[in-house]
Design brief:
The protein is of the alpha/beta class. It is built from ten helices and ten strands. The protein has one domain: Rossmann fold, CATH 3.40.50.
Length: about 250
Amino acid sequence: MISVTKLSKSYGTFDAISGISFTVPEKSICGLLGKNGAGKSTTIKILTGSIPPTSGDAILGGHSVVTNPDQVRRLIGYVPENAPLYEDMQLVEYLSFCARLHGLKTNQVKSAVKESLERCSLDKVSTKLCAYLSRGQRQRAAIAQAIVHRPTILVMDEPSTGLDPTQIVSMRALIRELSETATILFSSHIIQEVEALCSHVVVLSDGKVSASGTIGDFTEKGKKLEDSFLSVIPQVSHENAYEATL
């Protein structure tokens, strides 16, 4: 489970996020939805221990990102927006390296890497240099490195960025499968992606939580998630709906 309480991050006089609070239930898929600049990436970076908050706290799997960020990093799997690959390594070498970084013992590495390759449908390209992986393969490789240590929490930043429609469908299926064993939080500015995947939604606007709840809360009485999103982002009109989701 993820619990965020009054989390803030300031850069000088600029508040990237301001006092945000929300929870993500265990083994659910939660979409962090908002237009560009809403504070999604800042929130993700704090939750993964990449940057410290100015104030507030977040608890992931019982550990605080403020007082115990190293334990949080060991516990979670993190998929950055840009796939973090060492291009001069074969994929299997890269995943083995990641497994060792996460503290897996030598006799655990081979089976863990094999499992992550199979779950991400990458076993047939395991000996390929990371530099020669396709865009879709690179995104799946980013997930493979995030799950190689079998984390109970996955945090993803725009996991479908740059994928073609077929690859997006494949990515959604993989995320659904991973949610069977892990709590998943992913950021997105694509309303349709959140609506297709998520059981819970948190909407950010100008660094604050505009709304949060289950997907049913946002789509009750036949309402579309897009309409609910626009209704809690007052500065965005329906005429600018397309722009808001870019």
